[in-house]
Amino acid sequence: MKAGLAIEQITTVVIGAGHAGLAASRCLSERSIDHVVLERGEVANSWRRERWDSLRLLTPNWQSRLPGYRYEGVDPDGFMDVAEVVAFISRFAAVAAAPVRTHTTVTSVRKTDDGYHVATDNGDLRCRCLVVASGACNLPHVPTLRQAVPASIVCVTPTEYRNPDQLPEGGVLIVGASATGVQLAYEIHRSGRPVTLSVGEHVRLPRTYRGRDVLWWMDASGIWNQRYDEIDDVTRVRRLPSPQLVGTPERNTLDLNALSAIGVELVGRLSAIRDGRALFSGGLRNQFALADLKMNRLLDTFDEWASTNPRDAEVGPSERFEPTRVPASSRLHLDLASGEIRSILWATGFRPDYSWLGIPVVDGKGRLRHDGGVVDAPGLYAIGLPVLRRRKSSFIYGAEDDARDLIDHLASYLARPAGPLRGTRPTYEKDQ
């Protein structure tokens, strides 16, 4: 705390002014709950500072909506680029009159007898409730074997990558084949650099199915609204990689078949780096078969829903896609000292950063302990995490429903008499 600054008292503090934090703010305002939104940079800061140049949303524009606000442009079936996403979120903040304090970094949070003490580089606050909306992708998750990469190899993460021009000429090894990995493999290969893509567990989806966007099917069939407490192994589902999708005007499908067809070399999961050699697993066939099986099960679900409702007359005929093609031969090792590979891009996922959260609610793997966003501490909530309350939770499209649920719970908590935090955790009322 800066000397001479009084500690400000406020009912609720929201940490993070991305789409999720702003959705929570709007719902707090609707209930006349005084609050402030703290943002380390600017509104939509991660979109401004930590995205590559060509990135577009995976979700079509018609699915871009927040409480009382939605896309109203001329291209509902298109996909926003980074600048458009920043403008969309920033305009929502303005329309909602969100009480955002930009360039205010939270340095620590600790319990008090009746709430929380939030320390920032612009003064301290005390609040009864806290909403953590700082995101799930604060830090790139890079495996420890990165330390064994020869010094001659340039290593970058997706938060550092902007375009192929920043990479040296020569071969690129991309580790990870989720949405990020396949998109960057395509872009970098088009720049003229040979690309080797290391493939582990992945989720394969067509961009369109039976004439409709695949995310239309996820929405219309109710799959995206499936609640977290209806999923058998929600912990595993929350860790699944993002589906192999890309948002383009042509609504192209970008899967491993599309990449191998243009010359991207597919190898197995990177398992080790020893003596300057990258070693890959030999399980490509199994990985492909599993991803294809899960995709076809999902398409079966769509077909069943269309037939049962009935909606078959509104969409095209049922279709199935070519299985993922297994390479005739796949390398099991690659000499990183040979000069063939000049750079490695680690598309191996992200993790949240809760280093500032001085409350024992984070497990040994750095994840918040929560029940549908109600964190394991009274008056503490989280929003914007994968499958937080529904399968759609981490998308812009999913923030409104989650925010309304959580702010309902928060309002009920505030209606109780204030008291020490040492008591029992507030009862969690499940949705009806």
Task: Describe the overall structure.
The protein has 432 residues and is an alpha/beta fold. It has two domains: 8-138 and 352-414, FAD/NAD(P)-binding domain; 140-346, FAD/NAD(P)-binding domain (3-Layer(bba) Sandwich), CATH 3.50.50.60. The protein contains nine helices and 23 strands. It has helices at 19-30, 45-49, 82-95, 179-190, 214-220, 234-238, 256-261, 284-308, 399-414, and strands at 8-15, 35-38, 65-66, 69-70, 100-101, 106-112, 115-120, 123-132, 139-140, 154-156, 171-175, 195-198, 208-209, 212-213, 265-267, 270-274, 277-280, 333-335, 341-346, 350-351, 370-371, 374-375, 380-382. Strands 1, 2, 5, 6, 7, 8 and 23 form a seven-stranded mixed beta sheet that branches. A five-stranded parallel beta sheet has the order 10-19-11-12-15. It has a three-stranded antiparallel beta sheet with strand order 16-17-18, with no helix packed on it. A hairpin with a 2-residue loop joins β21 and β22 (374-375). The longest helix has 25 residues, at 284-308. The protein is globular, with a radius of gyration of 23 Å. The protein starts with 7 loop residues before the first strand and ends in an 18-residue tail after the last helix. Mean pLDDT is 94; it is low at 421-432.
